[in-house]
Design brief:
It is built from eleven helices and no strands. The protein is an all-alpha fold. The protein folds into two domains: 165 residues, no CATH class; 53 residues. Helix 8 packs antiparallel against helix 9. The chain is globular. The N and C termini lie far apart (49 Å). The mean pLDDT is 93.
Length: 257
């Protein structure tokens, strides 16, 4: 970004839903940077790392069929018969990620504090995978392997909790902006596109950059200084009801030995 009006993304894309959402995510970084551009240099950053990752995804949640029709990308809004398919795909993307999003930094922190010694790097990694994801390796692993290094953020020394936090913040932001826009109905059907008040609330928060503690930035959008994951439960409530019905009488879960 050269200045506040020069926003560019260099990205190889395909014309599909996944890259459409990815563009929203990456533009979220750009517009956040643009919003806090007038802050003193040391405050030109997000309230915390999770905010920067959440902003574009918050907008992407607002990309509903109604929005797509409004901007001319589809001719007809489909009926509710596709909602479960949509929510299941979204849950596999957002909810299934959370255990992994947590364990990456748990491994890093234990390495940094010295709790996990170099002789146990791989053993400690798979212990966390078993605990949080319920998975085990497909074949025997040893300390001759370094499986954590397959995730770029570990050899690249990039904190990872930001993505875990972002998956909470984005739904919390989204629910608040939907309430601001006066949305009625299931949360996942909301688009706050075109709502000036919602846009101002989000813009004012982004303009704060890192100048205030993150709970104050959170409050600027949501009205509370506390992280709140109940927005996730509300968003996926129709899917939860469907899954409860499908799994009635079944044992749900796993145990990795």
């Amino acid at each position: 970004m050269e200045n506040s009006q020069d926003l560019r993304i260099k990205m190889c894309i395909k014309i599909n839903a996944e890259d459409f959402v990815t563009i929203h995510h990456e533009l979220g970084h750009n517009y956040y940077q643009r919003a806090y551009e007038k802050q003193p240099y040391l405050f030109r950053g997000s309230a915390n790392d999770g905010f920067h990752e959440a902003l574009g995804d918050t907008i992407a949640l607002s990309v509903t069929p109604e929005y797509l029709k409004t901007v001319g990308l589809i001719d007809k809004v489909p009926g509710p018969e596709g909602d479960i398919d949509f929510l299941l795909q979204k849950a596999l993307e957002k909810i299934a990620f959370q255990p992994f999003g947590l364990l990456v930094d748990k491994w890093r922190w234990d390495v940094f504090t010295g709790k996990t010694k170099p002789a146990d790097y791989n053993k400690a990694w798979w212990a966390l995978v078993r605990k949080y994801q319920g998975m085990k390796p497909g074949n025997e692993r040893s300390e001759n392997d370094f499986d954590p290094g397959a995730k770029y953020h570990i050899p690249g020394n990039t904190p990872y909790a930001r993505y875990f936090l972002a998956n909470v913040y984005q739904f919390q932001f989204y629910r608040s902006l939907c309430a601001q826009s006066g949305h009625k109905g299931p949360l996942h059907t909301c688009s706050f596109y075109g709502d000036k008040a919602a846009g101002k609330k989000l813009g004012d928060m982004m303009a704060m950059g890192a100048s205030r503690p993150w709970p104050e930035a959170l409050e600027a959008v949501t009205g509370t200084k506390e992280m709140d994951a109940t927005a996730i439960l509300e968003y996926f409530a129709p899917l939860k009801a469907w899954l409860d019905k499908q799994n009635k009488g079944q044992q749900v879960g796993w145990k990795a030995e």
